[in-house]
Amino acid sequence: MAGITENGRRIMVAIDEGDESIYALTWSLKNLIFQNSKDHLILIYVKPPRVVYSAFDGTGYLFSSDVTATMEKYSQQVAESVLEKAKLLCNNVQNVETRIENGDPRDVICQAVQRLGVDILVMGSHGYGVIKRAFLGSVSNHCAQNVKCPVLIVKKPKSTDGEDN
Amino acid sequence: MAGITENGRRIMVAIDEGDESIYALTWSLKNLIFQNSKDHLILIYVKPPRVVYSAFDGTGYLFSSDVTATMEKYSQQVAESVLEKAKLLCNNVQNVETRIENGDPRDVICQAVQRLGVDILVMGSHGYGVIKRAFLGSVSNHCAQNVKCPVLIVKKPKSTDGEDN
């Protein structure tokens, strides 16, 4: 561990559409990331598996490949837009990298942490929406138990968040 | 959140007999606690509930109050010794406070975080020994889900730890 601070740490923040991940990022920028350091910040957005639709829509027509392509394009645009907004918050950090990955966020984040040699993983305690979370289980819980590096779980205070936690 | 860094943050580190909590403390001293800051560091040691012994020992004699008192004294000495060693590591931090509390660590830590206005809770991912952990469930999991402030879970790397994680 010696030298991590001097050489810069690889800090990964998991970003999604929710306010909680942006709160976690903002909190980390104030509390964890040393100004003018060599810290390398990785903002990762994981596109969760798409809900499996029937090949037939309500009218009995097959989904065309156009529809699938449009959905895929929309999903990619959302990812890029969310990451772009997140990156704007990091203007005091010299090294910022954004990544869009696909799959179950629990597995993808754990694998990315290992593959990219991340030193600290930061996550909101919620994320990926109420319905997706119910489907996927708690991403932060899973990652906290499975990644090898320290995990920082940041909760958005209730005072600025109507959601129960 | 604004001003936390400038005014100093209240950082609580849960300490027990295990190496993992000392690793978590050391990691935090290098990665989280700003040198020469006004950060206030709280080292908390929770004496877990004692195993419930039968009032009779194997020979049929009642446990005397002497035995109970001796056990209590021993437990207090262990707590003080562990905290003293932990505090020695924090010689670069101006404000260090140690606390010994009693009860189920899951509840005690969550309550202390709220009562003392803690800004960040740091824990090892294990702690309280294999047997006690099996009995108590995962302390860090419980706290990560129940405290309102950010929680940093620090794992001791396998290379310096024979225990599976």
TrEMBL record, chains A, B:
Pfam families: Usp
Domain UspA: 9-155
Lineage summary: Eukaryota, Viridiplantae, Streptophyta, Embryophyta, Tracheophyta
Protein name: UspA domain-containing protein
Gene3D superfamilies found in the cross-reference section: HUPs (3.40.50.620)
Coiled-coil residue windows: none
Organism: Pisum sativum
